[in-house]
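From the pipeline queue, job 12 of 40. The input is one protein chain; the requested action is below.

Action: predict structure.
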Amino acid sequence: MLKAVGVATPRQLDRIGAAAAYRRVLDAGGGASLDLLWALEGALVDLDWRDLPEARKVVLRREAMPSSTEDGASTIRPATVADVARLQDIEREAGRRFKDIAMAAVADDAPPSHEDLSGYIDAGRAWVHEDETHRAVGYLLLAVVDGNAHIDQVSVVPTSAGRGVGRELIDHARATASAWGFPTTTLTAFRDVPWNAPYYRTLGFEMLEERDIGPELRALMAREDRFGLPRVAMGRNSRIAR
């Protein structure tokens, strides 16, 4: 069954992950139960599938099944190397909004490189949000900074702004961070840009006090200071009420 959908070796399974392999089986018309999903993940982490933590199963189920918006048509899924060019396009499109507020330097900033994006994808820390036509309209990259999950980038094309795409990606990242045991999810943002810090506050993120900014996050903010615009560090507990 797996061989028929292009997952013939452990290396291939490791490359695409349990959730993507399971979706391939479903898309091919296979009548697989969730036990197959658990078994695939167990094989990857060398654990009996019956011993998988429930929190990990929640994340796997979200990754393997469509994550519905109000119309039940859109999906969050792990990014693949085949998505890299589209992710770069999304970044360019999202950046154009900054020209409307006289931040052309930000708008013209180059998107993440193929190498950087591939690194996040290989680590299983990149997701895309597809619309009802299966076109990627947003993406999120999750890093590890000072022992916390860190939203390194979340971008949405302007035509899909205001539809909950960013919120769903962030909720998904926080749920994943919680399942992986990270105590906090952090991010950095432009202080005065409406769809940056003010928006993240509506999602429950709070400004971090100076004493709560770790050395890695401080160094990251210093590198991001190339635009000379006010930036802030924000954080929220990774746990999500269910």
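Job complete. The radius of gyration is 18 Å.
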